[in-house]
Structures are given as C-alpha cells and as structure tokens.
Design goal:
Blueprint (H helix, E strand, L loop, with lengths): L1 E3 L4 E2 L8 H8 L4 E6 L2 E7 L7 E7 L7 E6 L4 E2 L9 H7 L6 E6 L2 E9 L2 E5 L5 E6 L12 H9 L1
Parallel strand pairs: 1-7
Antiparallel strand pairs: 1-2, 3-4, 4-5, 5-6, 6-11, 8-9, 9-10, 10-11
C-alpha cells in the first residue's frame, strides 16, 4: 500500500473517510468495540490476540463511522522507497527537512520512536526499524503510539 505523505493518505484513504472504505480494502475487522474508554475502534489481527494487531482504526464516536485515527503495520511503501524494516537513519536521509524523532512512552517506558511529517506518523521500533505508519491530527502525531500491536497491548495492560 502506498503512503502518500503530501496528502496524508494510506492507499488513497485519509482521515475523515468512512470506516467502510477501510473494510473494503482490508476485509472485516477481527474486533470492533472499545479498547479505550468511550473510544470506538476497529482492529485487524493476525491471531485471536489483540496484541497481534496489524491495523487499528479509531472512530469519531459510537454513532459515527468517520475515521479519526489510523494505525497500520501491514506492507506499505512511500514515494521515497521507505517500507517496513527501513532504518531510522536511512529514513531521515530520505526526508532531510529536519524532522524530529520523538520517543513515545507508555507506562513510563519508551515503546517506539516517531517521526511526524504533517498528519503522517512513521513509527520505529526500539531497534529503530520502521514498523508502522499512522494518520492523525498534526498536533497529536509526534507522541501518538502507532505500532498497532504495541499500542493495543499497552492499552489492555
């Protein structure tokens, strides 16, 4: 799937789209409900465990199908040939505009490193390899937990 950084899109879909568009693309979710209090979400997983999630959508509210947050760790690439496994150093060479690397902490521990480019957030694991991409409001992007399996596991613990 192509990540369009300029238009903040994953495979042509952006925030504000209907969750049904993501279901058409990824199939039916393995879980729909609240992982966080009062936050309706849809989760896709490789197994029956939430901690094996590869995608999570957060919806605007319980009465809406409008997507307001995307976390995606499937196969993807950017126009600058970044994909899962790209090192943080190589990524920063591909996007040389002085982007800030932000450590993301959950329960007091660093769980990932993020580089936000507008509304697109690239998440690197502790080995500093690209693992996931997210779409979020620009102001919350840098500190957002993006790697779906990491975020889901932390929310449930």
């Amino acid at each position: 799937m192509t990540i369009d950084v300029a238009d903040a899109r994953v495979a042509g879909l952006q925030l504000g789209a209907s969750s049904s568009k993501f279901v058409e693309l990824w199939g039916f979710p393995d879980y729909s409900g609240s992982l966080q209090p009062r936050k309706p979400e849809m989760l896709w997983s490789h197994t029956t465990k939430v901690s094996a999630a590869w995608a999570v959508l957060s919806l605007k509210d319980a009465n809406s199908s409008t997507v307001e947050l995307v976390r995606y760790a499937g196969l993807f690439h950017t126009s600058r040939d970044d994909r899962r496994g790209t090192t943080l150093a190589a990524f920063l060479r591909h996007w040389p505009r002085g982007h800030v690397v932000t450590p993301v902490k959950l329960n007091g521990k660093t769980v990932e490193y993020n580089v936000a480019i507008g509304r697109v957030v690239f998440a690197f694991d502790l080995a500093k390899k690209l693992q996931a991409v997210g779409l979020s409001a620009a102001d919350s992007a840098p500190k957002l937990c993006v790697i779906p399996s990491t975020c889901a596991a932390a929310i449930l613990n």
